[in-house]
Amino acid sequence: QKEVEQNSGPLSVPEGAIASLNCTYSDRGSQSFFWYRQYSGKSPELIMFIYSNGDKEDGRFTAQLNKASQYVSLLIRDSQPSDSATYLCAVMDSSASKIIFGSGTRLSIRP
Amino acid sequence: NAGVTQTPKFRILKIGQSMTLQCTQDMNHNYMYWYRQDPGMGLKLIYYSVGAGITDKGEVPNGYNVSRSTTEDFPLRLELAAPSQTSVYFCASSPQGSSYNEQFFGPGTRLTVL
Q1: In this structure, what DSSP letter does residue A83 have?
Q2: Each residue of A61-78: pLDDT tens digit?
């Protein structure tokens, strides 16, 4: 059973600080990795995608990938109250036909 | 473009009843997916399809059936509803043949089985 593991949280971070979210995966053949944000009662929306080892930056968001350690992380700089949501890590499996989701980390930004 | 649409938004079923959750996308995506999300949990893949006429099981297919007769539509059928199927159901679609396989989600169907 291919798995994607996340700490469920809640992770509480003061406004303006860096929030760090982590994810590990079991399928060594996985090629693509995603971070989705989900507000309460809403559907998930894609915020970051990464497929190469290293860092990928987009505005206040940085995704980091380490395939040797099977580890993906998401950093949110200058955290805002609007960043309070559940963040879902997702991994495309080695068949490249389906995406497996982690259970999500609930992030709370306190003013 | 409407994107991915799902109907109904809410439904209450009695144990043993059946229903079909509708999902339609207008982006000409070949890949479509059904997920369920239990409270405080992530998404579990129920079934997926890589094109019209082709479906395959995901992580939690028991109690569900799907069909894919057209590119646009991917209905999910519950034959004998059970309380364990109380969940939020999301349909998603994605483009074909790319390692950047972003999924576009519908708004969800909140199902309660009593």
Answers
A1: G
A2: 999 999 999 999 999 999
